[in-house]
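step=encode ok
step=design start
structure_in=
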């Protein structure tokens, strides 16, 4: 039986992809913090003016926490997937690039949502926000399908049961984020609730991948 143990060059290729991806995830998370604005109050304002201003910015905190944990879970899932990859090819590199492209948009849609949460255009901003996660979910499923399409690219210890488990886990993302997208036009709080429930769910399941 031909060995599928990774060679030095193959390991370096996979490591470079993961290192590059880790950098993009780290930058996306860092940029999220820049959306948190420091409120400005006048020196002669009331005693609780700063506290009131901070509380007034609660939409920014909600969007920040939801996006932060979503990107964090994305990174954890990305790490879990590439634990099984022995060798990367051009198709995997491109699929991974598409995922990272959409990931870099998360700080923008987060800022947009937090800015318009208490505005009459809140549903549109929420739709853009949840729509971004729909695209991320689609890109994740695409990346995973590209990875498992050629089983010679996988490490020999990965089982069909493991592949099926990851496939089933990822299958939840697209329909539920689509539900969040649709809910944006009915209730933005329901939409955010769905997004929050998803990252909580994946927080408890990713460790088993």
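sequence_out=
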């Amino acid at each position: 039986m031909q060995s599928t143990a990774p060679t030095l060059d193959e390991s370096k290729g996979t490591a470079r992809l993961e290192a590059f991806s880790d950098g993009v995830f780290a930058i996306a998370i860092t940029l999220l913090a820049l959306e948190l604005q420091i409120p400005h109050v006048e020196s002669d304002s009331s005693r609780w003016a700063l506290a009131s201003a901070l509380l007034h910015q609660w939409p920014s905190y909600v969007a920040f926490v939801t996006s932060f944990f979503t990107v964090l879970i994305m990174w954890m899932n990305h790490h879990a997937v590439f634990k099984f990859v022995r060798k990367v090819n051009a198709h995997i590199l491109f699929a991974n690039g598409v995922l990272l492209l959409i990931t870099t948009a998360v700080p923008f849609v987060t800022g947009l949502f937090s800015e318009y949460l208490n505005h009459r255009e809140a549903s549109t901003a929420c739709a853009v926000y949840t729509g971004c996660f729909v695209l991320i979910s689609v890109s994740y499923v695409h990346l995973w399908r590209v990875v498992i399409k050629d089983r010679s690219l996988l490490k020999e210890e990965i089982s069909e049961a493991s592949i099926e488990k990851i496939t089933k886990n990822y299958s939840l993302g697209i329909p539920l984020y689509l539900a969040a997208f649709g809910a944006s036009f009915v209730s933005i709080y329901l939409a955010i609730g769905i997004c929050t429930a998803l990252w909580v769910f994946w927080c408890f399941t990713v460790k088993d991948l």
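step=design ok
step=annotate ok -> The mean pLDDT is 84.
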